[in-house]
Amino acid sequence: MGHTIRHHHQQLPRLSSPSRTLSLLLHTAGLASFGYSFNYLLTQPSPIRDSYGWHFQYLTIIGLSLATLTVAAATLADLTRSSTLFALKNVLSVCSTPLEVLISLLYWGLRLIDPALVVPKHLPQPPLAPDLAFHLVPALVLVLDLLFLSPPWTISVAPAITLSGAIASAYWCWIELCYSHNGFYPYPLFALLDWQQRTVLFAASAVLMAANTVVLQWLYARVNGVLLLLPPSVSVEHNSLVSREHAKNFSDYWWRQQQHLL
Fold it and tell me: Which sequence spans correspond to the domains of the chain?
């Protein structure tokens, strides 16, 4: 017989957001970095600028655009104290944060193996400042926002897999369309793989993005405590707050909760 799930709606400890203090500082700093990145795209010569799809052939730029929308909504929420904009930011974050973490992991991981997998050999390697602005700062800003300035995500494992699979499939279709116009892929790695190998690459990337969602939720539970959805067999003191000190123990409950919701 299945368990009945009880909802314990509790305010979890976190920094004040939306607010015009630390929250606004983080979000405006993020927007400044993202603006620097887009300005770099517009001012630096690149053959990709004149090709079909422009810089949006790069997953990095798609992720940066989504991160910009997320942080822009957060900044406006800070300035206006709008609960609607704050909710919009939180919805966008469920997609943009795991995606940016995926981009950072893939980019720096592939660069460690061989920089030519992500940057064509005939092009110069990007300077350190824009490289970090494109491939590290967005993930850092969004993860900090999630951990300290956001309510807990309510997405479970199955929807996370569906979302990441949809993004991976859409991006694959997009770059194949661009390839049909341009005759080249944005990342050299794609040209080295046949169709079956690209299938494995995109499937693995989708799984990794979904795993990012799970790990970020687990990390949130470790930092802040958890919003529990527990079966009746688990005793929780009425109206008790899951504190940071108890987050380590309750993060195990969170994982069992995810299995309940599959």
Answer: 15-207
